[in-house]
Specification:
Layout (H helix, E strand, L loop, with lengths): L13 H4 L3 H7 L4 E3 L6 E3 L7 E5 L3 E7 L5 E7 L19 E6 L3 E5 H10 L2 H26 L2 H16 L8 H8 L6
Antiparallel strand pairs: 1-7, 2-6, 3-7, 4-5, 4-6
Amino acid sequence: MMTTVNTSDPIPNNILAALPNTEYEHLRPHLQKIEMRQGEVLYHPGDHIDYVYFPHSGMISLVTLLKEGASVEVGVFGREGMCGISIVLGDDRSPSQAIVQIPNGATRLKAQIFRDELKRGGELSNLLNRFILASFHRTSQTAACNRNHHIGERLAFWLLTCQDSIGGNNLKLTQDFIAEMLGTRAQA
């Protein structure tokens, strides 16, 4: 059976846009478009997840906070993904800090409604499982890149990843923020 993908209006998040019309229409009354500020923390490690977020053309970083106060980015995504993925895996707590790197809005959904939708077993679950798999592949590639490449090459990979995530070339980032995400220091 062929399922029609939602084309009723432009949806800026790839996961939501790929949902069949019936699933999207079921979720539509619960979806809230919001603005996000650069540097806004959506979750701290261990926070209970009350909302999941589907970025538009901005970008969110998942950051591990280290004991000595430093931090390092362990994941990044934009319009191709969602924030709060641990709920899909059965955990309602955030394992890391989720911070808005590039603001440009998102669609949010209450976590309980999201859980209920996952239980229905439609295409949303399939799309999210593919996103999780792609995220694992990206994390593996990043780990290999961090181990085998110099900072300039790591920066190039990271910038291309950012560009893909936002679907454009306008990356409004500071040197300090980039250095923090790459786990290095900014040069004066």
